[in-house]
TrEMBL record:
InterPro entries listed in its UniProt record: Glyco_trans_1
CDD domains registered for this protein in UniProt: GT4_PimA-like (cd03801)
Official protein name in the record: Glycosyltransferase family 4 protein
PANTHER family: GLYCOSYLTRANSFERASE (PTHR12526:SF630)
Amino acid sequence: MAAPDRIVLLNDFSRAEGGAGYLATTLAAGLSARGLRVTFIAGDTIEQGLPEGVEPVAIGGHALLDGPARSAALRGLDNRTAAAAVGRWISENDTPGTVYHLHNWSNIFSPSVFDALAPVRDRLVIHAHDFFLACPNGAYLDFQRDEICGRTPLSTGCIAVNCDKRSYSHKLWRAARQGVLQRKLRPHLPFARFVTIHEATVPLLRRAITPAHMHVIRNPVTAFASPVPAPEAQRRFVHIGRIQKLKGVFEIAAAGERLGLRIDFFGGGEDLDEMVRRHPSHAYHGWTDRDTIGKAMQTVRAVIVGTKSPEPFCLAAFEAAATGLPLILSDAILAAPELAGTGAAIMFRAGDADALAAVIGRVRDDDALVARLARAARDTRESLGHGLPDWIEAHLRLYTQLARPAGRHTDTQVARAAG
């Protein structure tokens, strides 16, 4: 089978921030480097540019929280402008050998993007970086109770409970959006290829959707730097990732303060200002490039990941382990038992600052423990996930299955001919 003649990646944001943004832009760069024609349709304005050789298409939209509440609520349900732009690009450029790959859609594109992609649904890959395809708040987390949610999405029990981090009215809006999504997603379920990033996510997604084709492609694990030779000789504790309540950052900050430790937070997010105000004794570095993080890792004793929801993969944890660093992980992370099983991580009860402080205290005081954890991380780094070349190859194999021979017409080509 021949490779696709074009791969179109779609993502809300063009920035390499957060898991999905980093992975979408990394995939674009890797495919382009192999000589493939790559187009990146971004919901935003693409102010920072894209990897070399990637054709940019900017929708020019904005994140939901960046606009007035009323218009944002309407755009979040149905961003007709973005959907029309995507549909227009497809009608003007689609070929039998073009494959489409949708990453995040919930912040700009809205569920309406699935209408725009319907004519190419048999050449479409839909990536589940999180649980927004299934759960109204995207996390299977009751934010009000700080509890993992076991309810069936959009069931009576789901709709009745106020699980939203803001308000019950916002929960009802999320439920409405999920209803719209399920309706627009239904035509795709028999045809599109759904990709998830860890085996443990499959049953959680299937609580709400039942795709005919679901594939697991684990995220690429790339070390931040060469393995840290002796973390037991270092003193710094760090968090890498978004600064938001969902990630357990307030518990990390509180635990550090109880122990008199300054935690280094690498990342930005919606709760950064509140974190700085409530916990000013810690160091906040904002979004930081990988080279800078790699240099910082050389003076780190352990990496803390406090996620309170069933996070599918937690790329930062795997990459820290690949850098030879001990991990302190919440037990909500789906891959936490796997990482703890390698001997590279210690788990604590998600959302429990006291339990976290106890584990951090052990790691702070026990050099031999840190040395054992670090040795296990170094010994298992090659088996933690795909290397970047293998990850790109896994996607390319999937794309090749979907690209049609040049002689077969697509729905969009038939429509253009009829017009």
